[in-house]
Amino acid sequence: MSRKQGKKKGGAKDQKLKKDLSDTAQDKPESVNEQKQATQTAEQNQSQSNAEETEKTQANMEEILKQGGIRGKRRWEVDINEPHAFWDKEPVPSLKQEVGNDVNDPVEVKTLDDVRKKPLLLPKDFEWFDMDLRDETIERTKEVKMVEINFLCVHKQLRKKRLAPVLIREITRRVNCRDIWQAVYTAGVVIPKPVAQNRYWHRSLNPEKLIDVRFSALRRRMTMPRLKKLCRVNETTVTPGLREMKEEDCEQAWKLLMTYLSKFQLFVDFSLDEFKHMMLPKKGVVSAYVVEDPNKKGVITDFISYYHLPSFVINHPTHKELFAAYSYYNVATKTDLIQLMNDALVLAYNQGFDVFNALDVMENEKFLKTLKFGIGDGHLQYYLYNWKVAEMRPSDVGIVLL
């Protein structure tokens, strides 16, 4: 009797236990979902917290850099509202002045009567000296008679005496006395107001020397043998008929160049005599080559040139000079431009140049990356004096100033 009752009691317990387990099993999915939701909420909160923390850190770093002067203004990045004691009084557009596409006129108009007749005063022990160069450079958008201002050099110690503005005003006076009122010039700094802003690109020909004199640096994970292999150029040129330009080639090459330059918004209208003066090969000054059509004797189809500009290397035990070639004027009518410029690299390398430099003017962008030029940190701004015109793209410029 008691045993039967015990079984009943045990059965009741079993039933109760089964019921509890069943209830627990039914509750489990809701409990898991709640845990998942809680986990997701926590992750979202943590992610948001991390994002806010990162934003605060970046803001703090920017403030520290700003206060420490680390994030300095680059030479080509300027405050357009910053005053310029000299240039604000000259006939050039201000940096904040917008020039419309329909504007192409002088900033101010003067006559000979407005020009002072005596040279500007110089500091004690200095005097003006006239150099007879006799070759004028002419620029054309409209056809405008201009002078090219180049090699304006003042010793740093003398710049404190404000000699640079005096030189600029005096050359302006002398040019005005010849009834010329406009000029074209370049500068590595930003002053009011560039008509175009260009960049220098560099192609290593002797990478070991360039790194040795700190012209360039060996990048991370790059080895010298690998870099030499990367910068290697062909031993010989591949363009049939490519040879050094002679005087009898000049007229054809000049016509090729002037036809080509007319495609651009800003270019020099060379006379034939000026072309000969600037382009005929001169040792240590300029190299120029033409392509003579192999099937038509005497017919010139292409033209390339580069000028020589060596630099002194200071305080180096081995190297005293760095030999740089600068791309000058190039015209490709029959030969592919990339092939032609690759031959220019070969010619420059065989002449002993360490680096070949080029501006992103004209159509140079077509070959820069393909021929392994690297963009440099040097900028070159183009300016027009007493002339306003809408800003141009680098490829609109057809002038290369030495």
TrEMBL record:
Region annotation Disordered: residue ranges? 1-59
Catalytic activity reported = N-terminal glycyl-[protein] + tetradecanoyl-CoA = N-tetradecanoylglycyl-[protein] + CoA + H(+)
**Positions of the Glycylpeptide N-tetradecanoyltransferase N-terminal domain:** 141-197
Keyword terms of this UniProt record? Acyltransferase, Transferase
Specify residue ranges for compositional bias: Basic and acidic residues: 11-33
State whether keyword Cell division applies.
Answer: no
Going by the record, the broad EC class of this enzyme is transferase
A molecular function (GO) held by this record is: glycylpeptide N-tetradecanoyltransferase activity
Domain (Glycylpeptide N-tetradecanoyltransferase C-terminal): give its ranges: 212-393
Q: Does the keyword Transferase apply?
A: yes
List the biased-composition ranges (Basic residues).
1-10
Family in the record: Belongs to the NMT family.
Q: How is this protein named in the record? A: Glycylpeptide N-tetradecanoyltransferase
Organism this protein belongs to? Reticulomyxa filosa
